[in-house]
Amino acid sequence: MEHVRDRSASGRLGTLTALYVTQYLGIGFITVGLTAILRDGGTSLDTLALLNVVGLIWPVKFLWAPILDRYGSRRHGHYRSWLLVLQGGLVLALLALLPFTRPAERLGPVVAICAAYVLLSATQDVAADAVAVRLLSARTRGTGNGIQVAASYLGNLLGGGACVIVYDRFGWVPAILLLAALTAVGLLVVWRFREPPRTDRVARTGQAYRALLSTFGQPGCRWWTFVVVPLVYVGAGAAYALVTPALVDAGWTLERVGLVTGVVISVPAILAGLLAGSGIGRFGRSGVLVVGGAALTVSTVLLLPLLNGHAPLAGTVVALGCFMAAYTVLNVVLYTVNMDYSRPETGGTDFTVLSSFGLICSFVAASIGLAAADRVGYPAVAVASVALVAAGVVAGVRHQRRFHGRIRPDTVPDGAPAVAVPGEGRTVVA
Question: What are the strands, taking DSSP E only, across 64-133?
């Protein structure tokens, strides 16, 4: 029985890994690879900035997340039916880029296709998160969210790194075909996925939309969402926003900046995500949160030479790698607690609205950090960022001590079907 349970848990984690990696392949290509290709083709920086605007679709996906919780096929699986369409749409959107072998000369259609891809990817993320909420027990949530965060970096690494190398050596068509083929792996995984029958379907669309607000009524959710999350994300995000301009100010070329920040430091981030996910199961959410906060403090100190205008290659890469690893550890903890607060009957909506708020905080943090640095300098902003993260860690530890046992108190063992108790935000074993 234990062997069957372990295989079942591994299968679920494998499915989630494929979904999360493939959703970020195109995102990595658009934000890193396509940006480099267009710049090489003579596209202005102002126009490239407009391309990044399509990324704003991602944090507003909570607006349509309730639709996915409300509607779905009983025959083919509630969320599986969405994933089949969305994953197939991702492949088709990438294939639609094939005719534009000189993307800089046909920027309008290329940006439109990219916007469609981001919309499909953001919606696929809602469905994938809902599946994760329903399949992962409290014991495996840390591992699942470690995989989710690590997968985002792996997708960026493949989409923004490997596909650009293929483009440089073999051209546009082979690069796009590789991207589409890798994304199609996720479609095959979804096709073979057998979603457990759903017995807690939301009865009305209005009820699904009420979940956007009712999720904050759970014990401690407002404290977590509006105190812990902003402190950590604004602090860490403001510090990270300093990296690229500081590297440019220190004399690094744009090519080196892109290679290091888009590819090289993704490797320690991937490893940190996986380690943090497994560490949560062993040391708890508070323990890993403290480790992440301490690591971010140390790595910010290591970044001080860069922030003061000195950026030797080896030392800077090590400092950036440590910083991204620490940032990733914090991300995994925040995502895991967000999933603790996600109720099975409205998992797509709950997890999406909670994670979207954190994403908005990150966007705001970048603006705050850069504006503040223009007035007081990079080092002062870095120190303030560390103080904010430390305050967030303290608040997070207090939150866990007080509320952890009251958040989705399910003790569903792996392999046992979970049945939601409507309106209660808890599950029981069937």
Answer: none
